[in-house]
Amino acid sequence: MSFGDPNTPYNPQAPAAQPGYPAPAPQDMPGYVPYGYPPYGTYVPEGYGAGVPPLANWGRRVGAYLLDGLIILGPLYGLGFIDLARSENLATAEPGMFFLAGVVYTLVMAIFQLHREGSTGQTTGKRVLGISLLREADGGTLGMGMAFVRKLAHIVDSMPCYIGWFLPLWDTKRQTIADKLCRTVVVEVSRT
Q1: How far apart are alpha carbons 123 and 128 in whole angstroms?
Q2: Would the pTM of this model clear 0.70, i.e. be above it?
Q3: What residue spans of the chain are helical by DSSP H?
Q4: 166 lies in which domain range?
Q5: Would you say residue 41 lies in a domain?
Q6: Cα dist. 125→64, 70, 78, 139 in Å?
Q7: How many domains does the structure of the chain reveal?
């Protein structure tokens, strides 16, 4: 075999190594996989490089959603029941000061959680359970506007018999319909 033989599977003119650096691997060798690529079958969002965090499982997502619901709505119901307990006739009870305080708390906390999800990718429930919401394209945070649009898109998850909420159980990217519409993924992160 000579250097001019077209049947050779290796590049005869492989570049020489720079002093202090290893020789580069030939790019046309069969089976060559560049360093940093994930194993076959692993989902890698567009724009990500090596070190992509794993996608969050459905159980963590549901747990974070329930925890956020408890944080946002729990005080509203608790304060409403206090108002009911203070009323003399349950049939004619009207919302009182405690219930109104609960409504104000719920609105403020909902906006706060939306801001946190848009700016950090994590609501309080997501942070406790170690998951984060990121843009699929580059792994960045959504911003408060897109986080709100994603919340509205969850209406579509509920429409066909709530099937969109269960979609992450079998979807390769573990996305709900709202995630697909808004191009987001939920990944596991370290718990803080």
Answers
A1: 9
A2: no
A3: 58-86, 97-120, 124-129, 144-158, 163-166, 177-182
A4: 58-188
A5: no
A6: 4, 9, 20, 20
A7: 1
